[in-house]
Backbone:
């Protein structure tokens, strides 16, 4: 389940204009806590076992808030939610460098998120959204360190050039995506984690100039390719190269995997799982979008895109 | 005392080309540890009570190192240094986003530094160098959070536009400097810390196109002004504005302090302390640079600058 | 007059989803041209003598458009608008690095804008919006170069930390604002331009967490202070320092002007012009916001903020 | 031939500490002009037909120089060099955003470079170094626009994450490299240019933690792969997708080419040209580095790396 006080504002009485869990007013903080606890309840009915908390909390002007109070209020609020978390649930604390606030964000980077997660307890984890970093951040290193700390909770996949652009996964920096998956495979294996189930995998990409389903199909393909390439890395040889500080050799090993065309492998895997060899091609050939609009059109007016 | 394996390389047998405390070779790591312990001994003779560790460790190409091993090796090395730290000493773990390594840095941001400091123990702190961040980082928030965690150790002051430019303090972003001092004053007061002695204050700025002493005089003046402006902030009124979410009002309070010309106050304080009213003016009028070059010239050949 | 096909979409038949003046469809381009010509007509009725063109045109994914065709189509469209421009009008070509498109913008930086302006002719100029640059851009240098080329048309003032944040002028980087005004004063004087009338001065800042009028009052005050400080720079002494490569001295001259508290001067000027000494104070004391909401309320429902 | 007053300082009498072609002192400017003219003469003897001018000129502190004078001085100096250029030569004006100067660079971006090139004349062109941009710049668009203006002179290939890192080509952002080659192929074809000879192709990458020859071999391979992938793009289908604003389709076409493993094609081409199938493998197997060090060692002391 996702909790997002920023987007969920409309159903709530007190305004989140100046934050939710960080708010100077205890009443607003309590409302945000109650909202999260309610989300957990809905989640339980739906069979979910995790709560992702992304807070728009922060400030747009120097002086607007007291950083320490904002942090401590947020921690207290999160603690209240954490206390209401079912035993088998996890809570993911998502961070974001900027936007919608333009001066500070109260969970602004992985360091802050990890601080909250460590203070909350063992059910609390950090969630990484690829588009939520300052320019030039080394995201794959963050992923590796969070796995090393056993505090990586999950992912929001997308791609971006400037900020939280939410572009199709793999459309801008596919090599970075591969490097992230390399860390995921390596780090999860080192911890004995199950690739499929021990992290929360989410796609958070969507741009209004593409059909959202085509966007999703392209994102899934990019993720599968990056994952397959990461599995292909000769980790024994890479480890040897690293132990010998053979920098050029280590690069060769990574690029060997990345440059291999694994589209046939991914397609075959899809076929064996009973799915289409070429999802985007099928989607277009079968005019599925038109069919879906047609069906929805029986009850509602389609909005176009 | 400052320990810097990157710059101190020349006196040591094994190469730090592939790192020091992170190195895959236990021998190199031990050499770096021994070097730091030696630095502590010199420091004790000189009456110092702190060790600043800045590591150039990192990588310039994907695959060059294993992030988790690099982190764990560095932690182990730091732990050995920490164990040799005298009881009344502090160790400052400095971070830097990039350079001289251009892909990853093993103590790359405040989050990593704090992780090390927390694992090491209560004598370990984070050191903030203003030029060591990714573009657009909110440094004043980092300062506030580290003070909140009781883990801010000290500062390297300088200014920059692009990276670790080491420009004169206050020459590019004087308002940011003021905001940082506002957090320092507020956060230290909240913790009952002594402004003068409870943090390590260092200037790490110097550019070859200025006389280094003039650079230093300008840096000191900028720091004193920012500190005086921070002390002038009406913290009671600011707190009220924050509690009322009066964003424009809070900005007015900060800018009132910042826009006040406190040069006369700083000059008077200097005069009362027996120093010059106008240090840079005096330095130029008295041709102190020429005098110093003259004196050094008796024994050595001055390099000019 | 401002023309903005992105925001003006609602009144037009063909969609600007894939651009306006860059569009692959001649019909859409023509619609955008016609819209601009219509805006000119309204402007003439209102006594305006300039047209500011900001285009959201660009792309969000590699391959989406052909950069050269997009440029050439845009140039052709702008030429058609230019041809319809009254003799005493200017056209300002605004640039923006990113957003709402997240891969490329067809008028993306000052270089592109100047290219269009030079190709269009002598009535075409570049417009600078402070928030429309890549991280760390030196905006004051751009201003100086555009003045040197006699192609600076005007300004959108605001402030920002990350992107096009549209924060109150002077709220984040007041020293940069001063440096920009220093270039404006110096460059306009060198060209014999009238400070008040020969450039288009606009404020384009507004954030929903401040009362928009208070935001505006703070922006105007910041602009007046920066302008007054720029006028105070001892340009003769600065020129001498530059000719002697006295870098520290040149910095002193700039900072002397910047550190002087010119609020009394600006307030006195306001008083002599028949305005309030302290506009924000008066606005709050007289509860002008409440009065305005009261008045509007007679005809319409106030939206709050 | 490359002219670089910054690196060539040692053989010249007057200091370039405060710039060369921008210098306030006419004598220094003349020295820089003379140096360039001398470089041309050496170039003629060597059979070269182009001069690349990269200037470290700029400033590190606000106020240090007058932007307009620096620009105009540089233009005048370049004009003198241009006037001495043989008829069949080109002059390439290289730009760089920052470093070694940390506040402004006098040829700081492609817009400035193009301004110089346009003012100089038809033998003057812009040179693009991949590492010389502000964060997040869209380099492929710059390449396309320069080709559109018939002013792209050549390339310095390398890769980088933060600044002018000079990493191995293709080691950080291989998809960006492919997109740049796609623009090169498309733009050169549109202008009827010869891929091999009508642009200046240079590799400017080298990092001390790799054997420089291995670095070079990896760079060449990355360039060949990107070029081959760019040639593989179905430009007819891409054009159709663009004309139909089929954004997802256009992305598929680009990624189809990029994801194809063209290493066998590039290797076969190398074999047919009489070169090694696997250059890096051969280089290591034959221990060519050791052989070269051995040979050089007969006359000189090898420096290690």
Residues:
């Amino acid at each position: 389940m996702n909790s997002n006080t920023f987007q969920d504002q409309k159903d709530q009485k007190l305004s989140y204009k100046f934050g939710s869990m960080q708010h100077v007013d205890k009443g607003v903080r309590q409302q945000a806590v109650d909202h999260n606890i309610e989300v957990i309840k809905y989640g339980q009915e739906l069979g979910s076992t995790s709560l992702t908390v992304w807070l728009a909390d922060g400030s747009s002007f120097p002086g607007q808030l007291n950083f320490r109070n904002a942090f401590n209020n947020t921690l207290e609020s999160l603690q209240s939610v954490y206390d209401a978390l079912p035993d088998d649930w996890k809570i993911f604390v998502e961070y974001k460098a900027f936007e919608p606030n333009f001066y500070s964000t109260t969970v602004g980077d992985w360091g802050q998120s990890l601080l909250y997660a460590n203070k909350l307890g063992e059910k609390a984890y950090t969630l990484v959204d690829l588009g939520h970093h300052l320019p030039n951040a080394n995201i794959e290193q963050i992923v590796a360190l969070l796995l090393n700390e056993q505090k990586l909770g999950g992912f929001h996949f997308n791609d971006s050039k400037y900020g939280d652009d939410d572009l199709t996964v793999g459309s801008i920096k596919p090599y970075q995506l591969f490097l992230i998956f390399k860390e995921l495979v390596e780090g999860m294996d080192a911890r004995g984690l199950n690739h499929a189930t021990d992290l929360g995998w989410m796609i958070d990409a969507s741009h209004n100039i593409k059909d959202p389903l085509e966007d999703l199909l392209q994102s899934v393909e990019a993720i599968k390719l990056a994952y397959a390439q990461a599995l292909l890395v000769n980790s024994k040889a890479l480890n040897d190269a690293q132990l010998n500080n053979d920098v050029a050799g280590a690069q060769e090993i990574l690029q060997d995997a990345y440059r291999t065309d694994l589209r046939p492998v991914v397609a075959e895997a899809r076929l064996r799982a009973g799915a289409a060899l070429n999802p985007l091609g099928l989607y277009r050939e079968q005019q599925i979008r038109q069919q879906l609009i047609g069906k929805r059109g029986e009850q509602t007016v389609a909005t176009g895109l």
About this structure: The CA atoms of residues 138 and 176 of chain C lie 9 Å apart. Chain C has one domain: 2-233.
